[in-house]
Amino acid sequence: MTYLTHLECSVCRAVHDHSAVQTVCTKCGRTLRARYDLQAARKRLSREVLLQRDFALWRFRELLPVLLPSNEISLGEGGTPVLPLVRICRLTEVRDLRIKDESFNATGSFKARGLCVAVAKARELGIQEACMPTAGNAGSALAAYGAAAGIRSHIYMPEDTPRVNIDECRIYGADVHLVPGVISDAAARMNAERGTSGWFDMSTLKEPYRLEGKKTLGFEIAEQYDWKLPDVIVYPTGGGTGLIGMWKAFAELETLGWIDGARPRMVAVQTSGCAPVVKAFNEHSSSCEFWNNAATIASGLRVPKAFADHLILEALYESKGCAVTVSDAEIVATIKRIARIEGLLLCPEGAATIAALAQLREMALLNSASSVLCFNTGSGLKYSEVLRQASTEVS
After folding, report:
1. Domains (ranges, CATH) in the chain?
2. What is the DSSP letter of 151?
3. Prediction pTM value
């Protein structure tokens, strides 16, 4: 059973019925978050119970929003490894440096987590067609899980989205639309064309349940760190669902009594060509301005303005973390470096988190005694253009 009780607005706290189809708050238009009866869960659910289940996303079903197990969909998502970066650890002089490798997920990226849960809940609510704008990997995940659930997917992508993502969506049977510009342009085209079609909008944090799939990152990290969280989490931030989800997961785990009140410092990493969160953080703002002319090889970070920017910034401020930028050149150099000394083929977004470590040392946000977790959010094999650049540049 799930302990889901209701949906709550992240701003005005208005309560919404989880048994009805919901998008954003009907009163103020902001992101809705799922709420659970954690006190009841605390009495019946334990860490020991989890150990009896497969290390995969649905092992946390009581803390996820799908009511009936028959509506769950699985393509093998979750349960991704946390790997030590032994040589980079020595070079950066950090005591404990690891990376959570989300390339092991279905469709090769962390987007599988959010779309797995969102599509399962959509099927439970009777939704037959869904749409989203995407920079690439989220579209692949929606197409795959939509195919598994019998839900028709309509996907709008920038024209220069990595070719692998475009082909993936099409092979899964999705209705793909290529749009000049960036993800915000794709969203505008989608909203203009869907009209009154009844397509359900699965845009980042414009529905409540992708966040619930992403929060399983936080659950897994806690377990993989023996229920004592790392000092610093370095996360590549576009729409920010994973960062927000982990922050939500940590609060839920504390209420369950599974972890104490110690929290990691959360670090958002963006690129110099698209850094709205970094700019807002440096200005101590509670929201981001639209980033004009966004450009970066890390397609997942080319998000000119996140819909739930207030929740990203809230997590950074509450955790005493920060937001930093890296350049595309640093990303390419890091992809090559990590491949050659660690044997890992990172996606550009994942490489950005490693590239940021030198800055974080200079800022004294981490030191030689820190335990640090970085993220590889997808397979480097999905970025053939970037790999070609990294492999042909002079060492």
Report:
1. 82-105+210-392 (3.40.50.1100)
2. -
3. 0.95
Alpha helices by DSSP H, 305-345: 309-318, 328-342
Tokens of 155: 């996907």
Write down the number of H helices and E strands in the chain.
16, 13
Taking the C-alpha atoms of residue 139 and residue 135, their distance in angstroms, rounded to an integer, is: 8
Closest by alpha carbon to 156, among 179, 173, 137? Answer: 179
Residue carrying structure tokens 């972890």 = 259
CA distances from 41 to 2, 36, 84, 179, 224 (A): 9, 8, 33, 45, 21
Q: What is the pLDDT of residues 248-258, one digit of tens each?
A: 999 999 999 99
Half-sphere exposure of 179 (CA within 13 A, CB side): 24
Question: Whole-angstrom Cα distance, residue 342 to residue 184?
Answer: 36
Question: Structure tokens of 170?
Answer: 């099409």
Task: Provide the residue type at 391 as one letter.
Answer: S
CA gap 175, 155 in Å, rounded: 6
pLDDT in tens, 123-156: 999 999 999 999 899 999 999 999 999 999 999 9
First to last CA, the chain: 54
Q: In 3D, which of 176, 123, 188 has the Cα closest to residue 150?
A: 123
- CA torsion 103→109→110→116, rounded to 10°? -120
SS3 281: helix
The values of phi and psi at residue 236, to 5°, are -75, 125
Residue type, 225: Y
